[in-house]
From TrEMBL:
<keyword id="KW-0963">Cytoplasm</keyword>
<comment type="pathway">
    <text>Amino-acid biosynthesis; L-cysteine biosynthesis; L-cysteine from L-serine: step 1/2.</text>
</comment>
<dbReference type="InterPro" id="IPR005881">
    <property type="entry name" value="Ser_O-AcTrfase"/>
</dbReference>
<dbReference type="InterPro" id="IPR053376">
    <property type="entry name" value="Serine_acetyltransferase"/>
</dbReference>
<keyword id="KW-0677">Repeat</keyword>
<dbReference type="GO" id="GO:0006535">
    <property type="term" value="P:cysteine biosynthetic process from serine"/>
</dbReference>
<keyword id="KW-0808">Transferase</keyword>
<dbReference type="InterPro" id="IPR045304">
    <property type="entry name" value="LbH_SAT"/>
</dbReference>
<protein>
    <recommendedName>
        <fullName>Serine acetyltransferase</fullName>
        <ecNumber>2.3.1.30</ecNumber>
    </recommendedName>
</protein>
<comment type="similarity">
    <text>Belongs to the transferase hexapeptide repeat family.</text>
</comment>
<dbReference type="Pfam" id="PF00132">
    <property type="entry name" value="Hexapep"/>
</dbReference>
<dbReference type="GO" id="GO:0009001">
    <property type="term" value="F:serine O-acetyltransferase activity"/>
</dbReference>
<dbReference type="InterPro" id="IPR011004">
    <property type="entry name" value="Trimer_LpxA-like_sf"/>
</dbReference>
<dbReference type="InterPro" id="IPR042122">
    <property type="entry name" value="Ser_AcTrfase_N_sf"/>
</dbReference>
<keyword id="KW-0198">Cysteine biosynthesis</keyword>
<dbReference type="InterPro" id="IPR001451">
    <property type="entry name" value="Hexapep"/>
</dbReference>
<keyword id="KW-0028">Amino-acid biosynthesis</keyword>
């Protein structure tokens, strides 16, 4: 996939997820979540090439400009959309599948001071299509199954199967209705709760 086709795909994903988006130009110029993802891609290439300090410096400049901190060592799939974005933190060993959506103030972090050994996964894995509501904290080397939804301000410390709804502090797992899953995929049905 070329750089330009990837940019077009990201812009299309933003317009799909955000009904306030009025044009491709607006999304390209004004969406800090996309700017952070695009900067992450450059930083991630530097990181994988062994240029760790430049990668970290780029991620810190991006954090300053956008309010979004994505560690260059994280693994992120296609069409990640970060809505509003301010305060989002994605840790070094986090893995995000395709079509993940994060709202503002989400933390994908570690939960132990003792798990800092190199090569040890300390951060969550979000499978394809996961949506994480504003202010939610997803902590530790857990797995959130595909097309799951994490409610606003939930604190998630345990893995969840696909199509789960996670709400509360600590989060409890509930199955989602098929209508909610279709809505997350871009359908017209609205879920019964607000993220």
């Amino acid at each position: 996939m070329t750089v330009f086709s990837r940019l077009r795909e990201d812009i299309a994903a933003a317009r799909t997820h955000d009904p306030a988006a009025r044009s491709n130009a607006e999304v390209f110029l004004a969406y800090s979540g996309l700017h952070a993802v695009w900067s992450y891609r450059v930083a991630n290439r530097l990181w994988r090439a062994g240029l760790r300090l430049p990668a970290r410096l780029l991620s810190q400049v991006t954090r300053f400009l956008t309010g979004i901190e994505i560690h260059p060592g994280a693994t992120i799939g296609r069409r990640l959309f970060i809505d509003h974005g301010m305060g989002v933190v994605i840790g070094e060993t986090a893995v995000l599948g395709d079509d993940v959506m994060l709202y503002h103030a989400v933390t994908l972090g570690g939960k132990s001071r003792h798990g800092h050994a190199r090569g040890v996964r300390r951060h969550p894995f979000l499978d394809d299509g996961v949506t994480v509501g504003a202010g939610a904290k997803v902590l530790g080397p857990i797995t959130i199954g595909a097309w799951s939804t994490i409610g606003s301000n939930a604190v998630v410390t345990k893995s969840a199967p696909p199509r789960s709804l996670l709400v509360g502090v600590p989060a409890t797992i509930r199955p989602q209705s098929p209508e909610t899953v279709e809505s997350a995929r871009g359908g017209t049905l609205e879920p019964e709760y607000y993220l």
